[in-house]
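User: Teach me something about this protein's shape.
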Amino acid sequence: MRPQQISSIHMEVFARGIGSQIVRVIPKETACYQCQAKVLASYFSEQPLAPDTTVASYDATPTDLHSSVTADDDVCMLTAGFVVKMAKDCLLRKCGEPIKVPGHIYLLGFEQEWIFDEPFEIKRVSSLLPQLNCPTCSGDEAIRCTLQMTSEEAEQETQKVEARIEYVGDTGSGTSTG
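Assistant: First, the predicted structure itself:
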């Protein structure tokens, strides 16, 4: 049983709610999450260091919270709104139709701080196409090229491996029998 080709959207709210990031992954159209995370890491390495992100723990006193809040609900809701828009764009389009929300990596700024010049700033970071040398992005083709097999040889090897796996119940968990 091969992995499903399912789109996903990953979001992170930055400490103190100064901003957030959204990464959309569409199999066969964008690079995988790991490859896109490398793009983000490269982007952040070229930026000034993030401000002090020390935040109060969840058991902090009201005095502690006054100076350092993890993130407000409104920041999470605003980010979630962007995520819903991007998800609808993926889910409601017809096969082969281009996406309406361009780009797959966004940084949303909610405070005039760090890399954000003004509140409610949106930065689109260059995203990647599927990478040919990544097994996650390019799947069987990348593996086949690495192993230097023909498509037929790779398919035969896959069938041998799948034949040794016994799937148990409807939970999707399985045990190896070989």
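Now, about its shape. The CA atoms of residues 16 and 49 lie 15 Å apart. The longest strand covers residues 19-25. If you'd like, I can walk through any region in more detail.
User: That's plenty for now, thanks!
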